Amino acid sequence: MPLSHPSFPNRVVVILLCALTGIAFAADDRKTGGPEPSAILWVDPGDIKSRDLFYGPGGQKELPKAPVTFLREDLHGNSPKFDVHDESGEKWKAKVGVEAKPETVASRLLWAVGYFANVNYFFDELKVENLPAQLKRGQEFVEGDGKVRGVRLQKHSGKKERYWNWRKNSFTGTREFNGLRVMMALLNNWDLKDDNNAVIANPANPQQKIYEVSDVGASFGSSGESYTNKKSKGNLEAYSHSRFVEKVTDKHVDFNFPTHLPFLYIFNFPHFFSELHNRSIGKHIPRRDARWVGSLLAQLTPKQIREAFRAGGYSPREIERYATLVEERIAELNKL
Predict the structure, then answer these.
(1) Strands 120-129 and 147-155
(2) Cβ atoms within 10 A of the Cβ of 71, count?
(3) Residue 195: how many CA atoms within 13 Å on its side-chain side?
(4) Which end of the chain has fewer CB atoms surrounding its CB within 10 Å, N or C?
């Protein structure tokens, strides 16, 4: 039986699981007592039209200074990664694979409207000195002479003190937090594990804690996890066929995001249940808050949006198609 037409028992299981999760954001529009005095999730971006989305939050001045030198391989997470330092001694996290391009773009769109994002840059090809003859992961991206294809370099922005929880945090119910949920839907960033979020000390004010989504690599593909990363991350066709807005009521909007896992994941029950629980992140968002973040996004020029995708190393055809799809989603938000 095709997976797109689950059997009756499977349907019953899914319905029961949905009921058990409680669709946890049913009270999103209620305040939780306000954020911690020292915590910050969003800042006023000022003149959005003046923001440089090609270089992003680090600007041209933060570009890594060649050459870069291999330090160690990082075997954490799903993507191949390794640490390097540039000529100035600055440390960077190199990532290759399907997340490298979409993460570069997603960070720029988040930063453009006032959310915190990592300083990163994408390189079609990067020369890495002292690169080992054989990496444990990502060797297929290595060419001769220490050259690596499709590399995202991310600046070490400070120690992650802890992660924050999507369903229980001091920003829940605020306009800014609901706007962040909308941004995740806009990007199709479905990998919403809490440990993909970070609380770090503000370098300009160590007493102030910055809340950010620190890993947005699962963006611009399908609206939920699929059997392969090739479809669910940085896949133009999957992004173009995913529906954005699912349901609109007088006061709230539901996004078709993140969608449930394919049903064979039911055999990995903890993961299936966790991902099903995350579906509530895209549901029951106040329309006024969705319109608010839509009004910020609407200030981006067509050139800025295309510059963000150019920064991610996409081809001219991909840039134009992706940018058009993002513009369509922004227009949907502003019609709510």
Answers:
(1) antiparallel
(2) 14
(3) 3
(4) N
